[in-house]
Amino acid sequence: xxxxxxxxxxxxxxxxxxxxxxxxxxxxxxxxxxxxxxxxxxxxxxxxxxxxxxxxxxxxxxxxxxxxxxx
Length: 71
Prior knowledge:
single chain, about 15% strand
């Protein structure tokens, strides 16, 4: 996941909602991406993907913040 985020950020401005179980690694990745592309819009959330309710809430937050691919 983090490698994909780096590759996408390197391609140009983007919006990302990053999630991970480890808040320290999550913040380190966010800072790294901001260093690569200061204009990248980032939000971070600590999340365990085994918690289906939390995952559902994350997707709703992403859709509310950034829209959906279908518009």
